[in-house]
Design a protein that fits this description.
Layout lengths: L10 E8 L2 E4 L9 E2 L7 H11 L3 E6 H4 L6 H9 L4 E5 L8 H13 L3 E6 L8 H8 L5 E8 L2 E3 L2 H4 L5 H8 L8 H10 L4 E6 L12 H10 L4 E5 L5 H9 L4 E4 L1 H4 L3
Helix pairs in contact: 7-8
């Protein structure tokens, strides 16, 4: 059997940053993350490796900021300057950040014309927080991240504690509950002009068990044919990537499988 080739034009190299190091993410258990061994946690070397494979799209998660710490702004700016393709950055945006933090995020986006900023459900306090980000960045610079764990939709603890979504999101979809319905978020985002979505199931990340987001990607694609849709987690090989794209994904986020690519 002829081996299936990686569609590198559609592959996104993943860099997870923790305390200044590129770490190997496994199942969302961040306390157990360790530096990527073959590059000694050097994010610049990891990007160079991805470049050698032919990858020109990248996803960087600032795990320090996602966990509530300061944004690794200098490192993000440094890494961004080394890239010549599309870059998405997840800065752990919650909506409660100061205007100064917003300015840093805005400067980062302004300095790199190809950079998009992810606002992810895991950290956002409400879908309406997307409005504030769009007020500071062009809508085309903002991406909505839809987070899952083992198939369960994940939102911030603050939103999860709210029983009813109505007062925060009536503009999105009546009385729908944003804590359990990811489609509410997609509807509100597209109404704002946000047309980029990243769908991840953190329980699948680094497990090499195969992608699990395909059916949801298909649902989102059928309902929103014009969005740019990136997804990943658990991809083992090129066949998995092709399969995810057949289910509506434009680009596939990959880390572990590429770390062992020869």
């Amino acid at each position: 059997m002829v081996p299936v080739e990686w569609p590198f034009d559609h592959i996104v190299g993943v860099i997870d940053l923790l305390d200044g190091k590129a770490v190997h993410a496994v199942a969302g258990l961040r306390a157990k993350y360790r530096p990527v061994s073959f590059c000694d946690g050097d994010a610049g070397k990891l990007i160079q490796y991805y470049h050698r494979l032919g990858i020109r799209s990248f996803y960087i998660a600032d795990l320090d900021s996602i966990a509530g710490g300061p944004l690794q702004a200098s490192l993000l700016q440094e890494l961004g300057s080394d890239l010549d393709g599309d870059l998405l950055v997840d800065p752990g945006w919650s909506g409660s950040e100061s205007d100064e933090v917003l300015e840093v995020i805005g400067e980062l986006a302004d300095e790199h014309s190809f950079l998009g900023v992810i606002a992810a459900t895991e950290t956002l306090h409400s879908p309406l927080i997307l409005n504030r980000l769009v007020d500071h960045l062009a809508a085309e610079k903002v991406w909505l991240g839809l987070d899952f764990r083992a198939g369960e939709f994940r939102v911030s603890p603050q939103l999860a504690d709210q029983e009813i979504f109505g007062r925060a999101g009536s503009s999105a979809n009546g009385n729908s509950d944003a804590a359990v319905n990811p489609h509410v978020w997609v509807t509100h985002a597209t109404q704002l002009g946000i047309n980029g979505l990243v769908i991840l199931d953190v329980a699948a990340v680094g497990q090499s068990g195969g992608p699990v987001t395909g059916e949801f990607c298909r649902q989102v694609r059928d309902a929103n044919p014009g969005v740019s849709l990136w997804s990943g987690g658990g991809i083992r090989d090129a066949s998995d990537a092709h399969g995810l794209m057949r289910q509506g994904c434009d680009r596939c986020l990959v880390a572990t499988a590429l770390h062992h690519h020869k």
